[in-house]
Structure formats: C-alpha cells, structure tokens
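Hi support team,

I submitted a single chain yesterday and got back a structure, but I'm not sure I'm reading the token output correctly. Could someone confirm the output below corresponds to the sequence I sent? I've pasted both exactly as they appear in my results page.

Thanks,
R.
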Amino acid sequence: MDSLFNVLLILGGLVAVVLIGIVMVTGKGDAMSGGGGSVRTTFKGKASFDDKISQFILILGLSLMAILLVANIILNQTTV
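Hi R., thanks for writing in. Yes, this is the structure output for that exact sequence:
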C-alpha cells in the first residue's frame, strides 16, 4: 500500500506540473473559461484550439482531484 501511495503522489505531481505548464503557455484567457456550460460558435462544427485546451484542462483537473482523493484514502487506511 505504501508503494501505491508513493506512485499516486508522483503521478499527481506529474499531472499538476502538466496542468500548470498548459495554463502558463496558453494564458488565462479563453482556455480557462470552463467550456462546459458556455455557448461557443465553431467553424463547421469543428472544435477550436481553445475549446480543445479547455476540455483538456478540465480533464486534467478532474484526474488530479481523483488521483489525490485515492491517495488520501490510501493514506488514511494505512495510518489507522
């Protein structure tokens, strides 16, 4: 269990670094708008670059939260 916890922490750190890198490269403009509930106009139904980045940031954020939640559950199981 301890090695699984360490692997999850390393994976969470890598996801966090990638997430930070994407936000720093793309800026805090349209890519951080959330994208899920907003209405966007697309050209011939194709998602724009900002739409794709917004979706990728959302997926990375959710996966980071899930990884760290599982790591926290494992930590609580091993310390009790």
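A quick pointer for reading it: The helical segments are 2-26, 49-79. Let us know if anything else looks off.

Best,
Support desk
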